[in-house]
Amino acid sequence: MNLILYPRVSEKSYGQASDLNTYLFNVPLNANKIEIKKAVEAFYSVKVEAVNIVRMGGKPKNPIKKGGKRIAGKRSDYKKAYVSVTKGQTIPVFASEEEEKK
Question: What CATH number is attached to the domain comprising 34?
């Protein structure tokens, strides 16, 4: 299992991490809930309670002129995973940022 998870860094994700004990990650489009759960448990040494995934469609980009024609494009699709861990456990990437705020 070679699944690379990237934490999504935003104010909303920090709020969910501190209030709901839920962490947000960018995951590959072909990843499923079971693979994500195993990867988080193995990499961060925490017990995962639930995983919810959302597939987000890429936003359209402004059309550009190329060779006299207008070409419309769009950004790549991506997938987000909301990972809930058991109470009392934290994921270090998010915990270090919360400690800096205090």
Answer: 3.30.70.330
